[in-house]
Structures are given as structure tokens and as C-alpha cells.
Specification:
Order of helices and strands: HHHHHEEHHHHHHHHH
Strand order of the largest sheet: 1-2
Structural class: mainly alpha
Radius of gyration: 21 Å
Number of domains: 1
Number of helices: 14
Shape: globular
Number of strands: 2
Length: 288
């Protein structure tokens, strides 16, 4: 019983902190419960990871405090524009926890989760607006995906004409198949600035998330590959979305980011992490 308590109490502290901050910030009990539940379900997925069992920190006290500090992550207090995005995220997490037990249909369940993630990302990023009356959905013109952007084809044609390359070569170099990948990579590079990372996860968590990603790919054969699919799906929506809002764009990828942080917490210098965390929280509460 004591061992079980020592294992669970840190995540309970994180859940309580996340719940309290949601109540203070938004006075919304439903979102406070939902975001706290997302944190707890993400921790469950981390605990069933086969590699993390041999990845435990020797300092139980510092490790527990570090785990409890996850409740301060700003993205855990985010409220998406449509609550449907939160419902889809929670449903995806529950399906992901139990899909391995569904032996004969687990691939169908994974396909369902992937579909839910794509829809959830579009909704939470406000790319798609969902309504109760026909039409039941519509693309937001200000946040529309780049494939629906009518300004790109004329811009590509202009590049062909203005280029110093011969027209036939310019036609090959400047076309939708080459411009769109460039646009996607440029969007991602602009999106992942330190400012966006700080607003979403706190600067201190850049340390464990990098360590966690390194550990994940180092032991990739033993890791759950679908976590990478989950993150890649979210990043794809980020790259095709014109919105600059980091919270709404990364909300659906929150569980994977939390798992990477959890993987990294046991691989870093926790004293250095707490120093960074104290600095991050000081900056967070300091008036801009």
C-alpha cells in the first residue's frame, strides 16, 4: 500500500495543481476536470511504457516533486474554442490505453484514433468550425489551411515569370509540389520559437522534453511507435494551419509532449531542472 501511494502521490499533486489553476484562471469546472483528466491519462500511458520501467530515478523525493510540477504547464489550462476537441482528445487517450487488449481489432482502433486526432486537431486549432445547423462544419477563412489559400497559385506563377531560370526549368522548380513543402517547413521553423514553447510548456520543460525525445528514439524499437504518429499528425496540422496560436495548435499533441517530458525527467539533473522551473514560474507571474 505504501509503495502504491509513493508511486501515485506525485501525479495526484500534479492533477490537483492543474485543476486548481484551471479553476482560478477560467472558473470553469468542466474544463478543470477535463484538463486534469488528460494529464492523468497521459501518465497512465507513460506507466505502461515497457522501457520506462527501467528508467526510474534513484532520488524518489526529487523525482516526485518534478512529476508534481507538471501541473504548472500552461497548456493544461488551455480551453479550446470548441469543447468537442477536448472530448475527442480524452476519447483518443482512453482508446489508446486499451487498444492492445483488443487483439483482433486493434489496428482498426488505431485507425479510429488517427482519424479522431486529425479531426480533433482541425477543430482545436479552429481551422474547422463545427455547428449544430447545416452546414455542420466550415473552414475558418482566417485560419484556413494553406491548400485552400487562393494566393499561393498566383504567387507560384509570378515566381516562374520573374525567375532568372529558363521557363521550363522554372516550371519544374517553382510548382505546388515544391512550394508547399517549403512552406510547411518554414511554418514549423517559425512556429517552434522559444516564445511559443514557453507559452505552451514553460521554458524549463525544454530540458526534459529533449532528453525524453532522445531516450525515445534511442530505444525506438521498444517504444510505442504510435506516439510518433500522434505527434507527426499534430505537427502536420500545425504546418498547414495559418494560425500562429501555439496553444490551440498543439493542444491535441499535449499527451505526447507530456510523455516525452516524463521520459526525460528521470534522465536529467533534477536540481538544474528545479532552478529552471523557478525561473520560468517567476517570469510567468511577472507582469509583462
Amino acid at each position: 500500500m505504501k509503495k502504491l501511494f509513493l508511486e501515485i502521490y506525485p501525479i495526484l499533486i500534479a492533477v490537483i495543481i492543474a485543476f486548481f489553476l484551471n479553476i482560478v484562471k477560467h472558473h470553469n469546472l468542466l474544463m478543470a476536470v477535463s484538463n486534469s483528466l488528460i494529464l492523468y491519462l497521459s501518465w497512465i500511458i507513460f506507466k505502461v511504457n515497457p522501457v520506462q520501467r527501467n528508467n526510474l530515478s534513484k532520488n524518489k523525493i526529487l523525482s516526485g516533486l518534478a512529476l508534481g510540477s507538471l501541473g504548472f504547464i500552461p497548456l493544461l489550462t488551455f480551453i479550446p474554442g470548441d469543447y468537442l476537441g477536448t472530448i475527442i482528445l480524452i476519447l483518443s487517450l482512453i482508446l489508446f490505453i486499451f487498444y492492445k487488449k483488443l487483439l483482433y481489432i486493434k489496428w482498426l482502433v488505431l485507425l479510429l484514433i488517427l482519424t479522431l486526432l486529425i479531426v480533433g486537431n482541425l477543430i482545436s486549432a479552429n481551422v474547422v468550425k463545427v455547428g449544430t445547423k447545416p452546414p455542420y462544419y466550415a473552414f475558418d477563412k482566417e485560419r484556413t489551411v494553406i491548400f485552400l489559400n487562393k494566393e499561393i497559385p498566383p504567387a507560384v506563377d509570378s515566381l516562374k515569370v520573374e525567375s532568372r531560370l529558363r521557363y521550363k526549368i522554372a516550371t519544374i522548380v517553382y510548382n505546388n509540389f515544391t512550394v508547399f513543402p517549403y512552406y510547411l517547413s518554414a511554418r514549423l521553423s517559425q512556429f517552434f520559437s522559444l516564445r511559443n514553447f514557453y507559452d505552451v510548456l514553460l521554458l524549463a520543460n525544454l530540458y526534459p522534453i529533449c532528453a525524453g525525445m532522445y531516450f525515445y528514439f534511442k530505444n525506438f524499437k521498444e517504444q510505442n511507435k504510435f506516439l510518433l504518429v500522434w505527434l507527426t499528425t499534430s505537427l502536420l496540422i500545425v504546418s498547414i494551419n495559418k494560425s500562429q496560436d501555439a496553444s490551440s495548435s498543439l493542444y491535441m499533441s499535449l499527451p505526447v509532449l507530456l510523455i516525452f517530458i516524463l521520459l526525460g525527467l528521470n534522465k536529467i539533473n533534477l536540481r538544474a531542472y528545479f532552478a529552471l522551473l523557478a525561473f520560468s514560474l517567476f517570469v510567468l507571474v511577472t507582469p509583462q
